[in-house]
Amino acid sequence: SGVQLRRMDDIENWRRKAYSLSRSDRLGHLVMKSLDLAQTVQRDGTRAEDIPWQVKSLARDRASIMRDDQRRNDPVRSLMYGMSATIGSMIESIIER
Predict the structure, then answer these.
(1) What pLDDT, on a 0 to 100 scale, did the predictor assign at position 46?
(2) Could you tell me if 62 and 30 are in contact, meaning their C-beta atoms sit under 8 angstroms apart?
């Protein structure tokens, strides 16, 4: 449907911006990976086979990137880590239902 396509386009536009950021900042990689997960759920639903793997991979990457980030306590960066964690938790909760 048109609404579905618009949603996918919105996610893809944000994903491109995150990709640009990822060239100079690992936080961009984390945002991109979070958006990849959201895009997979949007496209394939929560029953897609690779969703559990993507959620675990996102959590591992977030922990690694955050551990190495000297600016992790910056309010905006901290918010981005929290948003990534929330996306993963939300999808896990939906899958568990």
Answers:
(1) 86
(2) yes
